[in-house]
Fold this protein.
Amino acid sequence: MPFPAKTPGTPKAQVVVFGSGNFGSCLADHLGDSQHDVYMWSRQAQLVSHFNLHHRNKSYLKGHVFSTNVKAFGPELPDADSLRNKDVLLFAVPTQGLREFLEKLRPSLNCDNLPLLIFVNKGIEISTHALTLEIITDTLGADAAKASTFISGPSFADEIMRRQPTSVSVASLSHEKAQAAADIFHKPWFRCYTGNDPIGLELAGALKNVYAIAAGMSDGLGFENNTRAMLITRGLSEMTCIATAYGASPLTFLGLAGVGDLFLTCSSPTSRNYTVGLRLGQGEKLPDIINTLGSVAEGVSTAKGVKKIIEEMKIDAPIANEVYSVLHEGHSASDAVQRLLLLPPSRELVLPKGSGPYAQRLLRKLGIEESPKE
Ligand SMILES: NC(=O)C1=CN([C@@H]2O[C@H](COP(=O)(O)OP(=O)(O)OC[C@H]3O[C@@H](n4cnc5c(N)ncnc54)[C@H](O)[C@@H]3O)[C@@H](O)[C@H]2O)C=CC1
Ligand SMILES: O=C(CO)COP(=O)(O)O
């Protein structure tokens, strides 16, 4: 069904998108199509020149012609002068590279007068087990982190490019910033819902990738619908426990970024994380899968961060543990499933009381008092 070419929107904004992979270039196209002026940074010089000549991305989403309102630049990072008049900086760089990227960009940013900062990556940093909120705090300061906005939810890049109706959650500690980001992105085919739980939203996006690997493994081993539904639901229970121990709201997990994205990525081979699991279940080796995937599957590295977090927070998350054992300890997918099936009966959902060390570390850095627990 065609959408009206012009829909009511916010005034034209000057937007810089960092990262020109599947999601960065897809969102650049969406914003360009919404009549904003978009400058998309890439670290690949050839991608930049090809994109500016042909309006096509040489390496990702190859079948699509992009909005002419998007101009590519790079590989040099922009200087302070070229960022001065920009309204929005959108970061679509994978989590493991984000800290170094922000450190390099920092000299070009005026941290006393920042544009709207929006992050769409879904992962946990391996070396520190930090969420993006903490990476921003460490690199750009607590004020920048508190003003940052995070977008997550069930949103495959390729489907957004084809204007399939899609909804996302837009969360920030600042309601004003979440609303401003939603106003810029919202369109009939890209509906935005705002929220004030960025920790929950970030954890939902990062964790669902680990459970999508589990669902893919199950399908790859030949299990059917009941088993996938069990994994999705038990995965949601584990995710909610981990997030509650991080001080996030369990209700966030009933939303688009939680069950919405979990359901999407656990049930479609369009998901890179599901595909990693599927191929592991079919007997392929992880290095071969990574080398031929052509794009990032954040769940592979996030599983390491999750393992550490659940150990330190003493959370019972057997599926996350088994995904880790297959990805990083060389166990077979079928052995992992056997171990899960042999677990004794247990309570369906027990939310932890009090928060663990990573949550306390993040809140301390942000200068936020932990809310008292009953
Ligand atoms: N593809 C999708 O449908 C969605 C992806 N996401 C998230 O967005 C993030 C980016 O994903 P995709 O664009 O799909 O990945 P991708 O693998 O397609 O592209 C990654 C982009 O980041 C660049 N990059 C990688 N490492 C970098 C570094 N260290 N410094 C600077 N640039 C670097 C690459 O050159 C490439 O342009 C991930 O966290 C992913 O989970 C979120 C929602 C949907
Ligand atoms: O997060 C996504 C869609 O919402 C994309 O999932 P994958 O990274 O598994 O492809």
